[in-house]
Design goal:
The protein has 108 residues and is mainly α. It contains 4 helices and no strands. It starts with 11 loop residues before the first helix and ends in a 16-residue tail after the last helix.
Length: 108
């Protein structure tokens, strides 16, 4: 028996049952627990992206789904996210120039 303790997609119990693999799940009723599980899932997917376990397209799409679920769990409407992205882009720019900070010299 393997113990996972992680968030899974909604259809996974049916998929696993169809394969003849019994699993035990529970519903995360507590918002804080659900948010923590989503955050852990996001970290898991970032690690898989870094390890190139699946194509980047697959991982990025999945991470967007997780981010959408996080926003919904926090009660943040998509239009607020779009507005914040726009504000940040106008204030600080994007990542098109690929700038990488090497060091900063403190001034007195």
């Amino acid at each position: 028996m393997k113990i996972f303790k992680k968030l899974i997609r909604d259809n996974m119990p049916d998929i696993m049952a169809a394969k003849g693999t019994p699993i035990r799940t529970r519903v995360l009723e507590d918002d804080a627990e659900f948010i923590a599980a989503l955050e852990n899932k996001l970290l898991e997917e970032v690690q898989e992206l870094r390890n190139k376990e699946k194509p980047a397209l697959v991982q990025i799409a999945y991470m967007e789904e997780i981010l959408d679920a996080l926003a919904k769990a926090y009660g943040i409407p998509p239009e607020d996210i779009a507005a914040e992205r726009k504000r940040k882009m106008e204030e600080r720019g994007g990542f098109e120039k690929r700038l990488f900070l090497e060091e900063e010299q403190k001034t007195l």
